[in-house]
Design a protein that fits this description.
By secondary structure, the protein is α+β, with helices and mostly antiparallel strands. It folds into 2 domains: 197 residues, Beta-Lactamase (2-Layer Sandwich); 162 residues, Histidine kinase-like ATPase, C-terminal domain (Heat Shock Protein 90, 2-Layer Sandwich). Helix content is 46%, strand content 20%. Strands 2-1-5-4-3 form a 5-stranded antiparallel sheet, with helices on both faces. A 5-stranded mixed sheet has the order 7-9-10-12-11. α2 packs antiparallel against α5. The longest helix has 38 residues. The radius of gyration is 25 Å and the shape is globular.
């Protein structure tokens, strides 16, 4: 586990890279606990976010593998997420020495390189999917000891540069709070396994949930907004002219930051809804006002996709509702964006509305009205019947084949239905493969 002979300068540059703006955060860092059963929905969302961070940094750097893990009790390293390979195979089959390299990076508090021994030393050549080189980057907060590591690995030898490591360090710095939150969940899970006192379990769970909501909101969104702001300032060439390569890197950085910000905001909304901390207003509103804003937000997306976007609500149809205008707009933007995303070029997306006396809602067989029903219909790929029951679950999209091909988090419909139900309504679905889909937003009306 030593520096490559021709890369010492690069490593020195990586070590000397300024730490940048780190998140201020959780006091009393959790130092113990192992991942166990009884995972809450919020913990599952957090693990998924860790996986998405790994996917993003691997794509940006061009590594074969990426993994995030924490220092566990007993001088061990626990891997929480990996991409490029299944987590259970990461440190067992692909890179058995990953934990040792990670612990060395934590001890040194500096980027640590690894290279498989040359064949001349008598070592057996690795299998086709085995790691030949890697770099472990400590994930730390301020002057405290590192919480864990972000590791990048390749099936070839030394393809990374010091700039790559510096970029990965930025991802690592933004991952600190995620790893700390994961460790907090681990401690709560350990307490649940070791005590029979319901009061202690409830208090620990509430404490973890409250800290998750309080810290995630400020400690991730604030630095991400700062990163986006600085990227935009650099693109304005305030500090001097940029070349084409620099503009491209800044554009990628800005896209990545916006994507992560969307992920964090979506997960926070789901966690708040589950904790009963999401609030909505119930006021008389006019659908035309929110619909115009929603359509304006989606028209460029539809035009770029070569689709026809139609508004069939009309001016004479009564469109009053009881609800929260901002939340109704959020729901409509999500439904329209999904319709555009999964409709082939040349198709159409139509929004229509009508006042009805009764509603057939998913959580109520019949519901007396009157109701305002807003339909978003498309000529897209449709949704198989087997997946229609899952479509409103977190991280699920209509077609398994689209879950990675189409941009998105799989949280939009989850949040939209919960918002609709908080306003006293619901979202229902009628769809068939190859026949398009129709999502209906039901809102109470007077």
């Amino acid at each position: 586990m030593s520096l490559p002979p021709d890369r010492s300068a690069s490593d020195a540059a990586a070590r000397g890279a300024p730490p940048g703006a780190r998140a201020t955060g959780v006091a009393g860092v959790v130092r113990s606990g192992t991942v166990g059963g009884g995972a809450s929905a919020a913990e599952a969302h957090l693990r998924r976010l860790l996986e998405l961070v790994c996917e993003r940094v691997r794509a940006e750097i061009g590594a074969d593998y990426a993994a995030l893990g924490v220092a566990a009790a007993g001088g061990e390293h626990r891997w929480l997420a990996a991409t490029g390979v299944a987590l259970e195979a990461w440190d067992r089959r692909v890179f058995p020495l990953a934990g040792a390299v990670a612990l060395q990076a934590i001890e040194r508090e500096a980027a640590t390189w690894f290279r498989m021994p040359d064949e001349g030393t008598g070592a057996q050549p690795p299998a086709a999917d085995r790691v030949q080189s890697a770099v472990a980057i400590p994930v730390a907060h301020g002057t405290e000891a590192p919480t864990g590591t972000l590791m990048l690995a390749w099936r070839s030898v030394w393809p990374a540069s010091a700039k790559d490591v510096a970029l990965a360090q930025q991802f690592g710095e933004q991952s600190w709070l995620l790893l700390e939150t994961a460790r907090l969940f681990e401690e709560v899970a350990a307490m649940r396994r070791t005590t029979d006192q319901a009061r202690v379990r409830a208090e620990a769970s509430e404490q973890a949930k409250g800290m998750f909501l309080a810290t995630m909101s400020h400690e991730i969104r604030t630095p991400l907004n700062a990163v986006l702001g600085y990227a935009e300032l650099l693109e304005m060439e305030i500090d001097g002219p940029l070349n084409d390569a620099q503009r491209d890197r800044l554009a990628r950085l800005r896209r990545t930051g916006r994507h992560l910000l969307t992920l964090v905001t979506g997960i926070l909304d789901v966690a708040k809804a589950e904790a009963g901390e999401m609030s909505v207003r119930r006021e008389v509103g006019d659908l035309r006002e929110v619909l115009s804003g929603a359509l304006a937000a989606v028209v460029p997306q539809a035009t770029a996709a070569g689709l026809v976007l139609s508004d069939d609500c009309g001016e004479r149809i009564p469109v009053r509702y009881l609800g929260d205008a901002d939340r109704v707009r959020q729901i409509l933007v999500n439904l329209l964006s999904n319709a555009v995303k999964f409709t082939p070029r040349g198709g159409w997306v139509t929004i229509s509305c009508q006042r009805v006396p009764h509603a057939e809602l998913a959580d109520r067989p019949t519901a007396s009205g009157p109701w305002l029903r807003v339909d978003v219909a498309d000529t897209g790929v449709g949704i198989p019947v087997a997946r229609q029951q899952l479509i409103f679950d977190p991280f699920v999209q209509g077609h398994a084949a689209h879950e990675r091909a189409a941009a998105g988090t799989g949280l939009g419909l989850t949040i939209s239905r919960r918002l609709a139900r908080l306003m006293g309504g619901d979202i229902t679905l009628v769809s068939a493969p190859g026949a398009g889909s129709r999502f209906s937003l039901w809102l109470p009306t007077d």
